[in-house]
Amino acid sequence: MFVNWTSRSFNAWRRVALWVALLFCMQAMMLAQHGGGAPGGGGGGTGAGAGNAGSLGGAGTRGTTGSIPGLPGTGVGSTAPNTGPPYTRPIFLSGKVVFDDGSPVNANIRIERVCGGNVRLEAHTDSKGRFSFQVGQNQAIDTDASDDAPSMRGITGNSTLNSPDTTGLGRTGIGANPLWNCELRASYPGYLSDMVDLSTRRSLDDPNVGTIILRRAANVKGSTVSLVSAEAPKKAQKNFEKGVQSAQKGDLEQAEKHLQDAVDIYPKYAAAWFALGQVKERANDLPDARKAYIEAATADDKYVSPLDRLALLSAKEEKWQDTADYSKRVIDLNPVEFPSAFWYSAIANFNLKNIDEAQKSATALVKLDTQHKYPEAERMLAQIALSKDDYAGAAAHLRSYLSENPGAKDADSLKQTLLKIDEASAAAKK
Question: Which of 24, 159, 212, 284 is the most exposed, having the fewest neighbouring CB atoms within 10 Å of its CB?
């Protein structure tokens, strides 16, 4: 429940504020339009960092397990059993890459798929920044694999995860989710990429993933993949790979077994702990998912993805101080690739009555969220502005929300609210 700021005196316009408060008073009403985040790399929220296990309210790059209405979920896929005949339908993806600083694009920008911390080159852009490819069909030798740009680092080597069986094109049963822990990103030295969640993609979906933005790296200490995990012995890596393959096929029992074996062999295997947490979360075992994410974050203190998931799980449980603490750690380590962390921070601080901090996080999210995956941030900012008698600001943010989310269930009511706020703003100027 949000802060009851309507107890303040608004004189002649108290009735307006009371009515608006009724519309904004619950997270379910304020945020239910937005859905999940990105499982594999955090993000997601992006996450940018969509998904089914861990829905917090609604759709997007990012369910249905547990529900705190209004938070963008970052699920890891369906728990349907692996039954039915196999299929081999190809998945096609296309889009465009741009630099946030206006630098001209070129044909040397890599398009990479990251699944459970494993990085695979899928394509390069053309001279205009465009790309189009069939998932898993690039069999060329990756001559750039040793590049040390922040966005190119990952677990490399002879990983069988780079085989066609685990690209989304392999023979997987109906109900399986071959891209359950995968994200798409661009890669270019000195820049960090938006992360596009692939966890809910199917072969018949619109292949266009939109525009991926490359942002010049600055003050980024954490990564979406675990570098420490590259030191795992071969036997542990083999179990990790088998675990991810089983999870992609929807066989959570075998996935858990192999991933547990991997961390038993190598307790510092952060990527395996993270994947185990995703499997546990997918099975709706949130306590054990939390334990696995904590192990992942402990094994590699620069691995940001498990911290982002811990912020999400804390929000599900309405542990607002934990949510604020974990999201702050994410933002401190990597303020570029995890817009979801700003959202969790905004919600946590709002509920903790740290309104200025909530406003700060929501404002930062609006600037970072160039593809408008978190329109609820505008709605929160409208509410905060109204609580501070800033009618003009409230109107501006509410207009932005309606523009970004025209299909909101309460859009008609909000438009009426906007008219009343405009009336209050005009009266305040007299």
Answer: 284
**What mean pLDDT, rounded, does the chain reach?**
75
CA distance linking residue 193 with residue 112, whole number of Å: 10
For the entire predicted model, the pTM comes to 0.64
> What pLDDT shows up at residue 293?
98
Please say if the pLDDT value at position 240 is more than 50: yes
How do residues 138-175 score in pLDDT, each as one tens digit? 654 343 433 333 322 222 222 222 233 333 333 333 34
